[in-house]
Amino acid sequence: MSSQRTASHGAQEDGLSRLFEHSAGRLDAQARDRLLETAQEADLLAVFADSAAQLDDVTRARLERNARQLGAAQRRRRWLLRGAAALAASVLAVLAVRAGWQADQLVITATSRADARRIAVPAAAPQAMPAASATDRAVVTSVAEAAAAAESAATGAALGLVALHGEEDQALDGLELLEL
Amino acid sequence: MDANSLQFQVDCVGELQLPPQAASQLDHDPRALERAVAGDGKAFAELMAPHLDRAFRLATRVTRDRALAEDAVQEAMVIVHRDLRSFRPGTSVRAFLCGTTLRVASTLARSARRRTARELVTAQPHAFADPESATQARELEAALAEALAALPDRRREAVLLRLDADLSHAEIAAIIGTTEAAVRQLVYEGQKTLRTALASRLEAR
Question: Which end of chain A, C or N, has fewer beta carbons within 10 A?
Answer without folding.
Answer: C
